[in-house]
Amino acid sequence: MRTDQAGTGGTVEARQLEHFVTIVDEGGFNRAAERPHVAQPSLSQAARALERDVALFHRLGRRAGLAEAGRAMLEPARQVLRKAEFARAAGARALDLAPAAELRISLVHRPVPLTPAAQRFADLALG
């Protein structure tokens, strides 16, 4: 997902927003890089790309605090990521790629044989 940055003609990618939120949530670049599937170089690149026009962070040694622009951007970034995930999930459901739900039925008394139902619904597991 790419969207134009206000007033710059540049773009913001979802991965950059994910890294931005991760840096904020973890309180700095080093702790964010400890998360699975997150590398320090990609965090730094994402931050540099987002900060082309405005500083989002105050660097405090190895920690990063939010500058005023970063505070203003945080909640909209979270909203964009939530909406992107919602859209991805909706698309997966539309393509029937979402994991199948499991239905468990427990019977205390079996008044009729279930064999015909089991034959009719091949995916139904009786146990």
TrEMBL record:
<dbReference type="InterPro" id="IPR036388">
    <property type="entry name" value="WH-like_DNA-bd_sf"/>
</dbReference>
<dbReference type="Pfam" id="PF00126">
    <property type="entry name" value="HTH_1"/>
</dbReference>
<comment type="similarity">
    <text>Belongs to the LysR transcriptional regulatory family.</text>
</comment>
<dbReference type="InterPro" id="IPR036390">
    <property type="entry name" value="WH_DNA-bd_sf"/>
</dbReference>
<keyword id="KW-0238">DNA-binding</keyword>
<keyword id="KW-0805">Transcription regulation</keyword>
<keyword id="KW-0804">Transcription</keyword>
<dbReference type="InterPro" id="IPR000847">
    <property type="entry name" value="LysR_HTH_N"/>
</dbReference>
<feature type="domain" description="HTH lysR-type">
    <location>
        <begin position="12"/>
        <end position="67"/>
    </location>
</feature>
<protein>
    <recommendedName>
        <fullName>HTH lysR-type domain-containing protein</fullName>
    </recommendedName>
</protein>
